[in-house]
From TrEMBL:
Domain of life: Bacteria
GO molecular function, one term: phosphopantothenoylcysteine decarboxylase activity
Chain spans, region Disordered: 154-174
Record's GO cellular component terms: phosphopantothenoylcysteine decarboxylase complex
Residue ranges constituting the Flavoprotein domain according to the UniProt record: 17-137
Pfam families: Flavoprotein
Record protein name field: Flavoprotein
GO biological process: coenzyme A biosynthetic process
């Protein structure tokens, strides 16, 4: 697959700082491609990528350095840091994209858990938060998943982009669910930001124009 296969046109996002959180899905292996796509076709965006512990099973930070326009960070609170990483995320990001979002991460966010910097930032964000779930066979029919999607969709700042049919790496059958394409996620970010514009809570955070 080459970048042109997924299209290059898209809306004006109205943001130039995107926090992309990748979780422990096999679809995370495609992240180097998407980082290159974003750098090529969305050069106005500075993208910081956050990797959860599970994401490290499918992509290495070294595969992203040089492709991404911002930093590549772990979803942890390092003891050596003198600042709170979740606050850094909140102050810097103008939009948060969780791509791909596993069933587990989606559930944790819906349940209000905040046991990692990215989760705490997403729970407290007043900017658009968009999830692109990647699910196993039967995932979209799960009552638990559907309940979590309803909970998240009811939040003013959060949207869930439906997954696409995919082939399971275990069964080899087309019964799995791949995350929405990144361009479609950006469209949802633009749409949600438009809805939030004018709201006194939907502030454009500019205190830190660049992550330090």
């Amino acid at each position: 697959m080459i970048a042109g296969d997924v299209g290059t046109d898209g809306p004006d996002l109205g943001v130039d700082r995107l926090l992309l959180v990748a979780t422990g899905s096999v679809a995370t292996g495609d992240l180097p491609f998407w980082a290159t796509w974003l750098r090529t076709y969305r050069p106005e965006l500075t993208v910081d990528i956050v990797l959860t512990r599970g994401a490290h099973r499918f992509v290495r930070p070294a595969a992203l350095h040089g492709r991404v326009t911002g930093r590549v960070l772990d979803d942890t609170w390092p003891e050596s840091e003198t600042t709170a990483r979740h606050v850094d995320f909140l102050e810097w990001a103008q939009a948060i994209l969780i791509f791909p979002a596993t069933f587990h991460y989606t559930a944790r966010l819906a349940l209000g858990l905040a046991d990692s910097p990215s989760l705490l930032a997403a729970q407290c964000a007043t900017v658009p938060v968009v999830l692109a779930p990647a699910l196993p066979p039967g995932g979209t029919d799960s009552e638990a998943y559907r309940s979590h999607v309803r909970t998240l969709s009811a939040r003013r700042t959060t949207r869930v982009v439906p997954p696409r049919p995919g082939v399971s790496t275990t069964t080899g059958r087309p019964d799995s669910w791949a995350p929405a394409l990144v361009p479609d996620c950006l469209i949802e970010i633009a749409r949600l930001r438009s809805e939030l514009t004018g709201s006194p809570d939907a502030t454009d955070r500019t205190r830190y124009p660049r992550s330090a």
